[in-house]
Specification:
The chain is 35% helix and 9% strand. With 111 residues, the chain is α+β, with helices and mostly antiparallel strands. It comes from Schizosaccharomyces japonicus (strain yFS275 / FY16936).
Length: 111
């Protein structure tokens, strides 16, 4: 029969936030150790690709980090991947070019 576990906190149910692991202390006692939940890896808002250079942490731990550890030094750093930003820049450039071409064609038609 499995050994019973006495939780070290008030929550007495086997929930996702109350997971434990059995450890042996330096004093040679066997105890249950509460395990923290794992953080999700931040992903790009456009493509869903994992963002590089940003740690996977729980929201409270993430809030304690300094700004340089939370972002990447780039436009939309920490929100969008490098490829997504590149695509946005190219798209904006092509739209502007298209506007200029339309304007030129309109001028040619008037002449």
């Amino acid at each position: 029969m499995a050994q019973r576990v006495t939780y070290r906190r008030r929550l007495a149910y086997n929930t996702r936030s109350n997971k434990t692991r059995v450890i042996k202390t330096p004093g040679n006692q066997i105890r249950s150790l509460h395990i923290k939940k794992q953080g999700k890896i931040p992903r790009c808002g456009d493509t869903g690709v994992v963002l590089q250079g940003i740690p996977a942490m729980r929201p409270r731990e993430f809030a304690r980090l300094s700004r340089r550890q939370k972002t990447v030094q780039r436009a939309y750093g920490g929100c969008l991947s490098a490829n997504a930003v590149k695509d946005r820049i190219v798209r904006a450039f092509l739209i502007e070019e298209q506007k200029i071409v339309k304007q030129k064609l309109k001028q040619m038609a008037l002449k």
